[in-house]
């Protein structure tokens, strides 16, 4: 399924998100910062992308995920695990990156820092209930279905 994503350039040198291959689920998001951004070992830094975005679907959310290469090779991943860009947000997309390694890391302008995925979402009418339906699992939590 295809949808349209409008991108507004907010900073000179900002890159438009792009799919690396025809089979990619996520588009590469790049740093739109004017200069290098240092993420100290164990630290966090907010990296501007220099863009804002609008999906043409009211039920389309933009989800920001880590790039596997940055995470596995350098310990750089999203500070909030997954970033959520709500459909009604029109500000600059900022990526909060955490450095989980013991070495400082410098993000360079234009460097690919994250992946952007468009996904549909549901909203709910919340109803307070005294009881929930019974299931085989019930209230069994962490590890209740076995190790593997």
Short description:
The chain has one helix at residues 68-74, and strands at residues 5-9, 18-19, 27-30, 37-39, 44-48, 51-55, 60-66, 76-78, 83-85, 94-99, 105-107, 112-120. It is mainly β. The strands form four sheets. The chain has a five-stranded antiparallel beta sheet with strand order 2-3-12-7-9.
Strand arrangement within the widest β-sheet reads 2-3-12-7-9
**Tell me about the biggest sheet?**
5 strands, antiparallel
Helical content (DSSP H or I, runs of 4+): under 10%
Query: What is the CATH architecture annotation of the domain at 26-120?
Result: Distorted Sandwich
Beta content = 35-45%
The average pLDDT is 95
The total strand number stands at: 12
Could you give me the name of the CATH homologous superfamily of the domain at 26-120? Answer: Deoxyuridine triphosphatase (dUTPase)
Unreliable spans: none
Radius of gyration equals 19 Å
DSSP helical segment count = 1
How does this structure look, described?
The chain is globular, with a radius of gyration of 19 Å. The protein starts with a strand and ends in a 28-residue tail after the last strand. By secondary structure, it is mainly beta. The mean pLDDT is 95. The strands form four sheets. It has a five-stranded antiparallel sheet with strand order 2-3-12-7-9. Strands 5-10-8 form a three-stranded antiparallel sheet. It has one helix spanning 68-74; strands at residues 5-9, 18-19, 27-30, 37-39, 44-48, 51-55, 60-66, 76-78, 83-85, 94-99, 105-107, 112-120. It has a domain at 26-120: Deoxyuridine triphosphatase (dUTPase) (Deoxyuridine 5'-Triphosphate Nucleotidohydrolase, Chain A), CATH 2.70.40.10.
